[in-house]
Description:
Chain A is mainly beta. Chain A has no helices and 11 strands. The interface between A and B is medium-sized, with 26 and 31 residues.
Amino acid sequence: QQQVKQSPQSLIVQKGGISIINCAYENTAFDYFPWYQQFPGKGPALLIAIRPDVSEKKEGRFTISFNKSAKQFSLHIMDSQPGDSATYFCAASTAGGFKTIFGAGTRLFVKA
Amino acid sequence: GAGVSQTPSNKVTEKGKYVELRCDPISGHTALYWYRQSLGQGPEFLIYFQGTGAADDSGLPNDRFFAVRPEGSVSTLKIQRTERGDSAVYLCASSSGGIRGTGELFFGEGSRLTVL
């Protein structure tokens, strides 16, 4: 099922810095690319998502960059804060979210 | 409540025993998903329901795993003859589903299963 490859496994960023997490996918039928944030003991929660008809989507401090030809997408967290410390999962799915496939996750730690 | 509810939150059982995990989705959500998350890993797809029927059960690891959703709302994941390798957090998610759906999955907090 490993159709979404995520890197790095872990990331340490200084407060105020930029966090960048990358993902690559294989299945060209995917048409929905969400990022989920998970805190310990909680279920994942949608952070931001993009469809392949746009190359970038920004919501507050969070931006997704999407490269359809390279089959890659990335999450940028600007002005990273200690409260952003969590595990981030990229994911991909087809036709409305059926059978969403998740990456292995990136554990982000933002140092105060 | 308004979110996805999963019970029990923790289950400790012995190898070979039978386990049931319950999921109560967000009211009105037609799609329901079960995922398994091992320590340090991403959620692994198990099964997806659209209404009462299992639309895709390709992620169920073997015939010891079975899930039902008889009335199109609450779902139960059933694991027979549990093995130590079944230990994980079992996550349930729901969504509005359908082609017009946003694709967003709403997860519960999971049921942590430990098989001794």
